[in-house]
Design goal:
alpha/beta; D-Maltodextrin-Binding Protein, domain 2; 2 domains; two-stranded parallel ribbon; 13 strands; elongated
Length: about 350
Amino acid sequence: MHNKFLKWFVPMAATLVVGSGMFSVVNAADKDKPGEGVSITPAFPTIDEERFRGEVAVLGLKELGYDVRKPKETEFPTLYIALAYGDADFTVHNWEVLHNDFYQNAGGDQALTKVGQVMNGVLQGYMIDKKTAEAYHIKDVSDLKKPEIAKLFDSNGDGKADLTACNPGWGCELIIEHHMKAYGLQPTVTDNRGSYFALMADTIARFNQGQPVLFYTWTPQWISNVLVEGRDVVWLPVPFTSLPNGKNDASTVHEGKNLGFPLDSVNAVMNKDYAVKNPAAAKFLSLYHMKAADESEQNFRMQKGEKSRADIIRHANEWVAKHRAEFDGWLKEARAAAN
């Protein structure tokens, strides 16, 4: 009987040990990938120059085991509605001030949650070439009310200054439209909207030909690496702060110049219910951040030809490799949040 028991017990004990070991491995895998079996859908704007930031976030979520679906790509007003209704789960493209109306109109904090700041030091404003600014003593946008000054920036012969502005749906177009009225610029300035980067290509070509240029821009993006502030161009301030809906308490002054646009930051935003149910994803996105200069540098690589989707994903992988220790720290905290 004793021998029979041993014959039964030894193989069974071995099975239990192996099984126990396998169970530990599975548990370890679950802890490393708390998002295993869970899908997550990013929401990206249609601006390729902002995709890099999103692709870095995607890499982290994949390392946490999430099944990252194809991003929903749309204009900003629709992007927030998609997040609110659960058609998408997160974005890393929320401008705190500029997109506030889009955020509130989609349900605000009842439907969405801002989980963390991805980037700070984001600027917007108007620029002109330094040579013309100095030659004609142009101090702020109110100088463009003078027909002789406005004519300097006329590119189509109608006598009005041509301002390269931003695309409808971005949010900045609403502030520019407000400024045109607030500063009395409508009689002498044309607000040119369309495909921003195509318009800026023409603007840069005019600058390279020695012609005066006037344009709206923001940082981070590649244009600041081509038309360099202080060397080629200067910020053109506004005479006083005037924002839509009377929201004039926002800080708009950068290094002593009133840029006319709120100094901003970029946040990670999630669908509120999804964030509650997926603490690992929420924690990772709350910690994820990058420097504005990193995105400007990547955008410049795009402008020089590395602009395919494959290029952008490669850039994201390179960024993660360069910041691996910090990235791993975010992942560690995200995994801990899941327990």
